[in-house]
Amino acid sequence: MYDRYIFRQNSRQRWLSAPRLSSSKKAVIIYVPIPQQKVFQKSQIILVRELEKKFSGKHVVVIGERKILPKPTRKARNPLKQKRPRSRTLTAVYDAILEDLVFPAEIVGKRIRVKLDGSQLVKVHLDKNQQTTIEHKVDTFTSVYNYSYCRAVSVHHKKVIEILSYRILIFYMSWRT
């Protein structure tokens, strides 16, 4: 189910895993420590392209290795000595992972649709400028995020102007009534 590899670059260890997303699709996920992620992102596009050539038929995705801290409770045996940072909350970590997943593109909008049965679908709108670069990977993004984090997500491309005009229209309609 999971194939794990260790990838060495600059004498640091990077973890690779290759989950089987469906019967025909596979993806390679590279987990990078957060302090080194900014440096890694500078060469990420070239490295991903070379790794996709090496692992033929598989898409390569780079995700930062983040940690979620539990919500502090009053009855905890070992209360945390410091307040939990906002970047370690569940929502912040999932949002940051989603940004890492679609890295060359920027997220310009996000909608959360809650269905009657309580399930949630996150609709993510990416910048239209990067559409040609990552359009073939959109299915992989949704599958990896759903498989790894058990959250449904759908990825679409929109222009920033379309989203801004939609927000202005909503504001105008709410102000008018």
UniProtKB/TrEMBL annotation:
GO terms for cellular component: 90S preribosome; cytosolic small ribosomal subunit; small-subunit processome. PANTHER family: 40S RIBOSOMAL PROTEIN S7, SMALL RIBOSOMAL SUBUNIT PROTEIN ES7. It comes from Drosophila guanche. This is 40S ribosomal protein S7. InterPro entries: Ribosomal_eS7, Ribosomal_eS7_CS. The keyword Transmembrane helix does not apply. GO terms for biological process: ribosomal small subunit biogenesis; rRNA processing; translation. Keywords: Ribonucleoprotein, Ribosomal protein. It comes from the Eukaryota.
